[in-house]
Amino acid sequence: MLDQVLRTPFTDLVGVPHPVVQTGMGWVSGPRLVSGTANAGGLGILASATMTYEELERAILDVQSRTDQPFGVNLRADAGDAGERCDLLIKHGVKVASFALAPKAELVRKLKDHGLVVMPSIGAAKHAVKVAGWGADAVMIQGGEGGGHTGPVPTTLLLPTVLDALRDAGSDIPVVAAGGFFDGRGLAAALSYGAAAVGMGTRFLLTQDSAVPDSVKRLYLGTDLTGTVVTAKVDGMPHRMLRTPFVEEVEETSALRRLGPTLRRTRQFKRDSGTGWLRLARDGRAMRKAQGRSLAQMTLAANTPTLLKAGLVEGDTRAGILASGQVVGLIDDLPTCEELVDRIVLGAVDELRRASAYVV
């Protein structure tokens, strides 16, 4: 592991040497990738949304058998068993609780009372201010360039907006910037904006420590800057993914023709996750209340885990989706996590030193 050469409020808060975060990607951010990132000095985040409760506990123990460094777990704040999963993090001494949506204020307090760092992901300045007021220790923002579910505002505009809003609200919690980062120049730019770390998904997916099939990694590496698309036709919400023949077909298919496959994949997810129909219904109601999704969008949302599994685990690009950030068009190799983190951090130091020469 490279010695610490950049110290930020985020590295101090979490206890990692480097301001680099591997985000919690469903079916991708498993124990091998998370521990690889942690042992490289970054913060690895385990993705739990695609795991049962029992699988999550086994994954946490697996990570802890591979590393003694801090790591995090990403949780769905609107899941019916979010409270029980938080108890699991507390039980096993996980350092960071990361949330795809803002958790309830009482859940934030409970985690903080047990010494966990709470870091929700937010997509708007007002949400950052809200969770900061509830006691969140940090926030992660993702601009429109990022993979998976994303918004329309690019990182270069969302980041300063969030930073200014937090400052005006009297909050100095660290902000992790995600969406479009892959090298030392990006980290240096984010730090110059005022962020305390960068989060990366696609860049960590394309490492030797990622368990994604090699055939799928080669497909990613062969994609250019125009090779992704944002569509709401897969799961009802804007979702950036590789522009594969399957996605092109979905884009051109009517809602009525998508209904049958949607219901079949919902049943498949129910079987894979061990989730009962009652729990699915409760989660759906929570999703509808928290995100304002329609009934049709909630039905489509049940597609996502199964479709991602087909592409990212089984390597079936004809029947699955491959979430990806636009940055995929700039990535051309598969380093180890340690090689990646080292060169990003050292590259950022070089860039910051070079830029400081302009100061008179």
Key phrases:
single chain, 360 residues, alpha/beta, TIM Barrel, 2 domains, 8-stranded parallel β-barrel, 3-stranded antiparallel sheet, 16 helices
Description:
48% of the residues lie in helices and 12% in strands. The longest helix is centred in the last third of the chain and has 20 residues, at 337-356. It is built from 16 helices and 11 strands. Strand 4 (96-99), helix 5 (105-113) and strand 5 form a beta-alpha-beta unit. It has 2 domains: 9-213 and 331-356, TIM Barrel; 224-323, no CATH class. The model has no long low-confidence stretch (mean pLDDT 89). By secondary structure, the chain is α/β, with parallel strands linked by helices. The strands form 2 sheets. The chain has an 8-stranded parallel β-barrel, surrounded by 7 helices. Strands 7-11-10 form a 3-stranded antiparallel sheet, with no helix packed on it. It is globular.
Rg result: 19 Å
Q: Which structural category fits the helices and strands?
A: alpha/beta
Number of strands: 11
Number of helices: 16
Question: What is the CATH first-level class name of the largest domain?
Answer: Alpha Beta
Total domain modules: 2
Low-confidence stretches: none
**Distance between the amino and carboxyl termini:** 35 Å
CATH topology of the largest domain: TIM Barrel
Spatial shape: globular
| Strands side by side in the biggest sheet | 1-2-3-4-5-6-8-9
Order of helices and strands: HEHEHEHEHEHEEHEHEHHEEHHHHHH
| CATH homologous superfamily (4th level) name of the largest domain | Aldolase class I
Largest sheet report: 8 strands, parallel, barrel
Overall pLDDT score:
89
Helix content: 40-55%
CATH architecture descriptor of the largest domain? Alpha-Beta Barrel
Report the portion of residues in β strands: 5-15%
